[in-house]
Amino acid sequence: MVWIDLKRVPVALTIAGSDSGGGAGIQADLKTFAALGVHGTVAITSITAQNTREVRAVQDVSVDVIKAQIEAVVSDIGVDAAKTGMLHTSEIIEAVSEEISRYKIPLVVDPVMIAKSGAPLLKEDAVGSLIRRLLPVAKVVTPNAREAEVLAGVRIGSVEDARRAAKLIADMGPEGVIVKGGHMEGSESIDILFYQGDFIELRAPRLESRNTHGTGCSFSAAITAELAKGKDIREAFRVAKDLVTHAIMYGIPVGKGHGPLNPMASLYNESERYATLMRVVEAVRILEGIEDARKIAPEVGINVAMSLPYARDSHDVAAVPGRIHLVGRKLKATSYPEFGASDHLARYILTSRLYDREIRAAINIAYSDENLERLASMGLKVSWYDRREEPGEVKAREGATIPWGVRVAVERAGRVPDAIFHRGDWGKEPMIVLLGRDAVSLAEVVRSIA
Ligand SMILES: Cc1ncc(COP(=O)(O)OP(=O)(O)O)c(N)n1
Ligand SMILES: Cc1nc(C(=O)O)sc1CCOP(=O)(O)O
What we know:
Layout: E1 11-19, H1 25-35, E2 39-50, E3 55-60, H2 63-76, E4 81-84, H3 90-103, E5 107-109, H4 127-134, E6 140-141, H5 145-152, H6 159-170, E7 176-179, E8 188-195, E9 198-205, H7 215-228, H8 233-249, H9 265-271, H10 273-288, E10 304-307, E11 317-319, E12 324-327, E13 330-333, E14 338-339, H11 344-352, E15 361-366, H12 369-377, E16 382-384, H13 392-396, H14 401-413, E17 419-422, E18 431-436, H15 439-449
Helix pairs in contact: 1-7, 2-3, 3-4, 5-6, 7-8, 10-15, 11-14
The protein binds ligand LCLJCK34 and the ligand Cc1nc(C(=O)O)sc1CCOP(=O)(O)O.
């Protein structure tokens, strides 16, 4: 939930380069500020002709105009926190350092050195200025492992090395140092904050995605936005890690190289909460209206589930707590739909979405040959998995059966099918699970079957 104080909207300033591809630089920063409910202002330092594959040209803005932008914003609007991104030359770094010292603005420094495409964004001879002039006026510095190696002068191959580098960089003046692990090896992306003599480590599963352009920019912008709201560095670190993980999960597949991450993912999710819940309410109404539901109701009950468009886990899936049960011939929901109320169907949806982002809804009905025949006669694609073929190591992992089964069924069908069935196992009722984009359309299919 983004809380916005309408009486006093926090203001953040980004002093950074422009990316014509809209993925990194000030474009990523402004999206991130907006996603976190902060008004964003800018001082453009360089204009880059850039896309997802390369940086084709760089034109630095004159030092006078960079200073004028900062002064224009500070003198009228006021700035609660600022960040730097691409500062191409020593002259630019020195000018920015002077302005920050003059106005005493809390500053986050993202020591941008090289673009994801490999192009240098900081001149080699400017690293010294960055260390001497910018780090001493910074509140937080957010290097990735490669940038931390350059700043600290040590090689980073492990979390221990990253901790050592963070301490060395802290000696250069900033209050907090975050060494990001995104560019390192391993199944987890581990970021380390060194602040007030202590380390905080945040972990997230490493996501396989090409669409990560602008990650460093969004991360530092999120820290800046939270500092602008008056949050502590540690809290800002947590928010930034969370936002970036979500933004990479739903990176934007544009261009032929590294597409941008999507800093708006959590905002879009929040905006869809009510509409998603209402689709489940409507689907339940359709199911409760079925005249004779005896042939479609399983012993364990029916559930209807629908996920948010940028769902991360079962908390982003709405369903009926306690499910929908047969009372006489009719179905009756035990309670009103809620997010986080589904265990099984949420897993069907979340796994299917790894193959097809459009899938957001699921309904389970009783397994029978008759119900399968009805689905086939409606032209729907049906696939299946056999719980007795589940490998031992999958069985041993809590909650792994359905993701495994969905993978088997999807691979068998060559796409996410319209329905997946299994014939049960010891103590496990056989089931048919319908999958699709929308809970209401699925409920209509169930009504036709019944
Ligand atoms: C104008 C501009 N600023 C910063 C960058 C760096 O972005 P990227 O290459 O995606 O690297 P990270 O943000 O992930 O560190 C850029 N390319 N252009
Ligand atoms: C209990 C159950 N098992 C299913 C299976 O396919 O194995 S579907 C199902 C019902 C839905 O469960 P929930 O309310 O946790 O989403």
